[in-house]
């Protein structure tokens, strides 16, 4: 009985964890990389893991108000999240969403959220009995394409080290560049980066020169400093102010829920 319960618990853990599956399909997170390379290449072609991007921040003070927002035509869905103090908080959308109007009609005080899949130019009519604040976000799967930070191109900026991503438990491609900015702050830039299109991934700095397995990545001295912004594209990160460049020998992309290393880049 104990053995059966343990097996059931493991199955539930793997099935429910976001970054252990590919595009919602269940898979063994410890399957060898070479067995998944072709399938991952097809899935990752021009498509990143879904992520939420802010479209607008809205505020009001108890009177009915109208707000124009534009949701990308390529967005998977969008949502409005709000906080209000008293009375009711109601949101109607023009053009009328598939869910119908009002999209939301809740009592305050507190927090709330409503989601719909309609995209394009939208008008949100909001009614509330008191002060409120709302954030409109869209969920997208296109690659991130951030330009280098201005400080990366400024006089005195220096690339301290760089490295190419290689696979550990999942595919990884692209280049990691560790910068020292003119003010002494360290920054990381990922260029041409891609890994499996899943969520719940984090960026680590590691003192291990070239971790080859999850066990090596986990047992080495490391620092988690950011959630991975996107599984595809060019992106920038500022490291903590106390980060020591001499101790950063590799960058690891880590999946926290099931604790596996996806990919890493040895810095030289």
Gist?
With 268 residues, the protein is mainly beta.
Give a structural overview.
With 268 residues, the chain is mainly β. It has two domains: 51-140, Jelly Rolls (Sandwich), CATH 2.60.120; 144-266, no CATH class. Helices cover 13% and strands 47% of the residues. The strands form three sheets. The chain has a nine-stranded mixed beta sheet with strand order 9-15-12-11-10-17-16-13-14. A hairpin with a 4-residue loop joins strand 16 and strand 17. Residues 1-17 and 21-44 have low confidence and may be disordered.
Compressed to H and E, one letter per element, the order equals HHEEEEEEEEEHEEEEHEEEE
Strand order within the widest beta sheet:
9-15-12-11-10-17-16-13-14
Distance between the termini: 51 Å
Return the structural class: mainly beta
Q: What oligomerization state is this entry in? A: single chain
Q: Could you describe the largest sheet, including whether it forms a barrel? A: 9 strands, mixed
Q: Extract low-pLDDT stretches.
A: 1-17, 21-44
Q: Tally the structural domains.
A: 2
Helix share, percent: 10-25%
* Helix run count: 4
Question: What would you report as the Rg, rounded to the nearest angstrom?
Answer: 22 Å
Q: Quote the beta fraction.
A: over 45%
SSE topology:
Elements: H1 2-16, H2 33-43, E1 51-61, E2 65-71, E3 77-84, E4 88-94, E5 104-107, E6 110-116, E7 120-128, E8 131-140, E9 144-145, H3 150-153, E10 158-167, E11 172-180, E12 186-195, E13 201-206, H4 214-219, E14 222-227, E15 232-238, E16 250-255, E17 260-266
Parallel strand pairs: 9-15
Antiparallel strand pairs: 1-8, 2-7, 3-6, 3-8, 4-5, 4-7, 10-11, 10-17, 11-12, 12-15, 13-14, 13-16, 16-17
């Amino acid at each position: 009985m104990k053995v059966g319960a343990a097996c059931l618990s493991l199955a539930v853990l793997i099935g429910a964890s976001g970054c252990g599956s590919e595009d919602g399909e269940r898979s063994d997170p410890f399957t060898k990389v070479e067995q998944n390379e072709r399938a991952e290449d097809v899935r990752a072609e021009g498509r990143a893991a879904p992520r939420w991007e802010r479209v607008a921040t809205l505020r009001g003070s108890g009177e009915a108000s109208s707000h124009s927002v534009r949701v990308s035509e390529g967005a998977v869905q969008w949502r409005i999240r709000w906080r209000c103090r008293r009375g009711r908080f109601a949101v109607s959308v023009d053009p009328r969403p598939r869910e119908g109007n009002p999209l939301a009609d809740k009592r305050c005080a507190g927090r709330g959220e409503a989601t719909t899949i309609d995209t394009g130019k939208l008008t949100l009519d909001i009614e509330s009995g008191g002060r409120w604040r709302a954030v409109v976000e869209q969920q997208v799967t296109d690659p991130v394409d951030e330009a280098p930070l201005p400080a990366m191109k400024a006089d005195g900026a220096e690339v301290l080290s760089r490295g190419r991503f290689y696979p550990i438990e999942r595919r990884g491609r692209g280049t990691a560049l560790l910068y020292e900015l003119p003010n002494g702050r360290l920054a990381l830039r990922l260029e041409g980066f891609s890994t499996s299109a899943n969520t719940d991934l984090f960026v680590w700095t590691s003192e291990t020169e070239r971790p080859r397995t999850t066990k090596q990545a986990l047992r080495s001295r490391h620092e988690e400093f950011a959630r991975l912004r996107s599984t595809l594209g060019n992106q920038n990160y500022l490291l903590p102010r106390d980060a020591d460049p001499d101790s950063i020998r590799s960058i690891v992309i880590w999946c926290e829920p099931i604790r596996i290393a996806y990919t890493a880049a040895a810095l030289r």
